[in-house]
Structures are given as structure tokens and as C-alpha cells.
């Protein structure tokens, strides 16, 4: 597997620009094309949320009245995207402006554009907002049929020397393994395989190391270390291990649960993506 198409959703925020910096760094290494996507929420004609859409304090049931506004909005947005593109000379970037709901359109765009990797900026959310609302990034991780690289901070230049792959090392899909190997080889990085051992899932260090070693040898990995890490929870253990190592990137798989299943069981990968300050690539169950 190779990375040929990278999708970067942008709202022109600092976080999305940080994501574009990282995507550009990957594109230079892989000769990939970046699709820079800005999605505008679809106006609902006559809805109170759009009362002041023309700055006149009134609405209309005639969709034709909204067309000049939408055309102007597209024109202004494309100008902004062109300005962003000029900052990344030597990187193949195509811009896209769409009226839709962000998560839904990204899920559709990934299939249409044959996206290999999504790179998204994120602030992360916590507390009651995390339980009730979540974040755009978290929802994309759950739904998109492509790996998602979450970026929290400005990282320039983007280099990978140490990559953490945290897993149970059971039933890891072939495409996930291929992409891990591709990224490791492309950047010449060392892979650090780790399984976090908590009080609720205790196993001996010897058993853990044998499991990971068998995984690495079966899939013919080179330049790697084998690690078990004891901590109170898997999410905190992964973050702590990555901090101790000063890792440049974390990689994880997620079940991509939705609805009540997500509320009850959650996802360790989504938790790490939400709270870790380091970049993290998540592979969900749709990535097959």
C-alpha cells in the first residue's frame, strides 16, 4: 500500500493549518496529492438559524434567492484556498468547496477521491461536551473508510524517527499492517510495539513479549522494539509510554463504534486521539 491521496479538511483555523503543514510534509516524502476540502453547512431555507443570511433580518422560501449568496461564498472561499496553496510551493494541492454536513461529506469524499489518508487538526474536547457532542475529528475517525491522522500542535518540519504502535496484537487487518510498514519505511523510523497491561487485564511480561514478537516476525517487520507497559488504564498507558519515548507518532486501531455502543463502550483510540498532544493515526474497522 502507498499514500497517493491525502485529504485535509480545513476551516482556515490554526488547527487545520497545522494539519496541512503535516500533510505537506508527508506529501513531499511520498509524492502524494493533497485534496484541500472546505465544507460549508447547507443553508436550510426559511430556517431561523439563517434569518440574517443576507444581513436583512428576513428569510424566504424561494431557494433562488440564496443562489447569489452561495455563489459569492464559494468565490470568497476559493480565493482563500488559493492563498493557502501559494504557501506550499512544490506540493500538488487541489481545492474543493462543498455545501454539506462535514462528517457526511468527508465519508463520501474519501470513497469518491480514493483517499489513502485523512489529516485533520483538532483541539479535542473533554467532560460533558465529549460525552454529548464529541468532535468533528472523533466522528470522522468513527465513520471514515480511511486512516485518520489527528494533529493537535504545529509540527514543522514533520519528521518521524520513533513511531509507537499500540495494540492487542490480535486480528490486525492486512491493510493496516501494510500502511504501518509503508510509513515506517518512507521515513526510516523505528517502530515501538507496545501492549499496555492494566490491573484488569493482567498478563506476564514474558507472555506479552512472546505475543508481540510473534506478530512482528509473522509480518516481517524490521527495526522495531517489543514493549509491555503497566498502567492504570490503556489510554493513559499509551500516552505515558509515548511521552517517555518522546515518540513522533502514535498508531492505533479502533472499533469505530457508533450510537449507544459508543456511549457505553467508547473507544480507546478515540480517547487517545482526543487527549494526546502527539500526532496519532487511527485505523477503524472500515479500513479494509
UniProtKB/TrEMBL annotation:
Q: Which domain of life is it from?
A: Bacteria
Which InterPro entries does the UniProt record give? Rossmann-like_a/b/a_fold, Universal_stress_UspA, UspA
Query: Which CDD domains would you find in this protein's record?
Result: USP-like
Looking up Gene3D superfamilies in the UniProt record yields: HUPs
| UspA domain mapped to chain residues | 3-152, 233-281
Which family does this protein fall into? Answer: Belongs to the universal stress protein A family.
Under the heading PANTHER family, the entry gives: STRESS RESPONSE PROTEIN NHAX (PTHR46268), UNIVERSAL STRESS PROTEIN UP12 (PTHR46268:SF6)
What is the name listed in the Swiss-Prot or TrEMBL entry for this protein? Answer: Universal stress protein
The scientific name of the source species is Rapidithrix thailandica
Amino acid at each position: 500500500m502507498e499514500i497517493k491521496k491525502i485529504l485535509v479538511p480545513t476551516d482556515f483555523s490554526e488547527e487545520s493549518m497545522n494539519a496541512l503543514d503535516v500533510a505537506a510534509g508527508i506529501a513531499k516524502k511520498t509524492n502524494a496529492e493533497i485534496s484541500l476540502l472546505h465544507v460549508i453547512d447547507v443553508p436550510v431555507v426559511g430556517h431561523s438559524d439563517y434569518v440574517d443570511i443576507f444581513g436583512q433580518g428576513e428569510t424566504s422560501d424561494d431557494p433562488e434567492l440564496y443562489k447569489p449568496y452561495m455563489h459569492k461564498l464559494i468565490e470568497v472561499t476559493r480565493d482563500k484556498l488559493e492563498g493557502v496553496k501559494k504557501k506550499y510551493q512544490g506540493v500538488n494541492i487541489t481545492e474543493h468547496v462543498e455545501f454539506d454536513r462535514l462528517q457526511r461529506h468527508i465519508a463520501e469524499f474519501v470513497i469518491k477521491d480514493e483517499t489513502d489518508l485523512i489529516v485533520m487538526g483538532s483541539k479535542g474536547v473533554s467532560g460533558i461536551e465529549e460525552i454529548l457532542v464529541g468532535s468533528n475529528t472523533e466522528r470522522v475517525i468513527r465513520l471514515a473508510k480511511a486512516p485518520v491522522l489527528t494533529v493537535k500542535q504545529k509540527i514543522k518540519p514533520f519528521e518521524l524517527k520513533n513511531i509507537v504502535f499500540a495494540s492487542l496484537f490480535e486480528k490486525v487487518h492486512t491493510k493496516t499492517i501494510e500502511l504501518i510498514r509503508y510509513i515506517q519505511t518512507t521515513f526510516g523510523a523505528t517502530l515501538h510495539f507496545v501492549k499496555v497491561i492494566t490491573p484488569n487485564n493482567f498478563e506476564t511480561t514474558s507472555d506479552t513479549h512472546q505475543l508481540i514478537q510473534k506478530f512482528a516476525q509473522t509480518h516481517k517487520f524490521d527495526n522495531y522494539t517489543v514493549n509491555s507497559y503497566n498502567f492504570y488504564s490503556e489510554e493513559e498507558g499509551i500516552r505515558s509510554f509515548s511521552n517517555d519515548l518522546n515518540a513522533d507518532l502514535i498508531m492505533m486501531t479502533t472499533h469505530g463504534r457508533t450510537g449507544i455502543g459508543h456511549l457505553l463502550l467508547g473507544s480507546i483510540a478515540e480517547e487517545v486521539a482526543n487527549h494526546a498532544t502527539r500526532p496519532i493515526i487511527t485505523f477503524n474497522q472500515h479500513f479494509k
